[in-house]
Amino acid sequence: MAAAPVNGYRADVLRRRIPKMAEVVAADLRQRILRGEFVEGDSLSPESALVEEYEISRPTLREALRLLEAQQLISVRRGSHKGAVVSLPGSDLAVDPFTILLQLRGATLNDVYRFRMIFEPQAVRIAAEKASAQEISDLRELLDQEARARRDAKVFPGVAWRFHTELVRLSGNVTMTLVAETLERISERHARTVASEWPDAEKQLDRAYRAHKKLVGLIADRQGEEAERFWAKHMATVGKQLISDADRTRIIELPE
């Protein structure tokens, strides 16, 4: 049943918040940036031109620019003749809010790892089918970094989880890549904590490195199905060590 009119207007319309002019201008500029009218490194139009274009005051424009700056879509260089410069955000923009949501919902490390075990093997298969020679070369460079770090339980997990994220990126699936990048910090932090407590940490890290090296070989040989099976098995094996207590370990309990 429709809400009863109040002074000629429906109550739900009256309750609807009317956006401030600065929010309207920020929304329009945001869409122009997202559509590619302004690209990273471009300066927005001069302040005087934007004031005239939107028929607003300078304080209103500056409030709109502050909103865009908070969203990491521009950077405002005080005292610079360039003014507001387009500066596109990375996946870091999503990490903290997403982590907070995981904390509020009571998510555990087990949730995170089991989810990664669902999409990573599929991403690996796709990567083997479509990764370019240059992308495979970049993956080998990460392997070289792992080789140098495999005797350091505090450094190796960071490189290893970048390797995981890069595998997903090579699938070409933007959604999976953003999720992997967002979860990387949580995964890496936990792995670093656990690995530093292993009595045979050097042996375990060397085993992980050799598994990663074998996977890159399978990808380079375009053996997608074999790569998918191998990675699923590897993640399941490593997961038993990394998430033995993860059902009880909430995300909020991770040290900073």
Secondary structure topology:
Layout: E1 5-6, E2 9-10, H1 11-15, H2 21-34, H3 47-54, H4 58-70, E3 74-76, E4 84-86, H5 92-104, H6 109-130, H7 133-149, H8 156-169, H9 174-195, H10 201-220, H11 224-242
Antiparallel strand pairs: 1-2, 3-4
Helix pairs in contact: 2-4, 5-9, 6-8, 6-9, 6-11, 7-8, 7-10, 8-9, 10-11
Helical residues, percent:
55-70%
Overall average residue pLDDT: 86
> Number of folding domains?
2
pLDDT under 50 segments (min length 5)? Answer: none
**What's the helix count?**
11
The shape, in one word, is elongated
Would you identify the CATH H-level superfamily of the largest domain?
GntR ligand-binding domain-like
Write down the Rg: 24 Å
Order of helices and strands: EEHHHHEEHHHHHHH
Spatially, the strands of the biggest sheet line up as 1-2
CATH architecture of the largest domain: Up-down Bundle
Structural class by SSE content: mainly alpha
Per the CATH scheme, the topology name of the largest domain is: Four Helix Bundle (Hemerythrin (Met), subunit A)
Amino- and carboxy-terminal Cα gap = 51 Å
Secondary structure tally: strands: 4
CATH class of the largest domain: Mainly Alpha
Q: Tell me what portion of residues adopts beta-strand conformation.
A: under 5%
Give a short account of the largest sheet: 2 strands, antiparallel
